Amino acid sequence: KDENFRAFADRVAELALAAGNHDVAALADAEFESGDSVEVRRQQLVAKLGENIQIRRIQRVDAGGGVISGYIHGGRIGVLVALDGGDEALARDIAMHVAALNPPFVDADAVPADVLEKEKDILRSQAEESGKPPEIIEKMIVGRLNKHLAEITLVGQPFVKDSDQTVGALLKSRGAKVKQFVRLEVGEGIEKEESDFAAEVMQQARGS
Length: 208
Known about the structure:
The protein is of the alpha+beta class. The protein is built from 8 helices and 7 strands, in the order ααββαββαααββαβα. The strands form 3 sheets. It has a 3-stranded antiparallel beta sheet, with helices on one face. The protein has a two-stranded antiparallel sheet with strand order 1-2. Helix 1 packs antiparallel against helix 3 and helix 5 crosses helix 6. The chain is elongated, with a radius of gyration of 21 Å.
């Protein structure tokens, strides 16, 4: 919440957008202002605030003629969503959902083949332990796989603000489709916080 940090973050975001790539190292060498590089200003800010500040990731979302909106939860989780159709309010609601439930994929088509095969192997092993006939086992695998896909895809999950409908149903009712989403969390990939941020976001989302 420090004004110096916010000003630094805003300027770095502008430079990253202008660069048009995901090169964090190049961004560190970019000119911040008055001849100082981003890295020099970062070090100065660390010294001033006494906080460990790192520029770790750059993610770009292209609206591509559609709409784009985002949601930030508590300064720790940030989401951007680009839609074909719909409006910014819908994109923000979808971003809030992504912040809460963190789906790995947009839809079943986006799930890599190796991920599907691995899950099928697990489900087949479980189903075969039931001792049921092969044709029943195959039906069990299909049913369980569809259930798993619903859990790991954005469109298959119950919408966080109305669990009576899926995100996919909501999008369809509004004539919209998710083109892309990005979810970033502070410290993600470095250490795992014990606090249940997902539950906290869901509680806030349902109340808004």
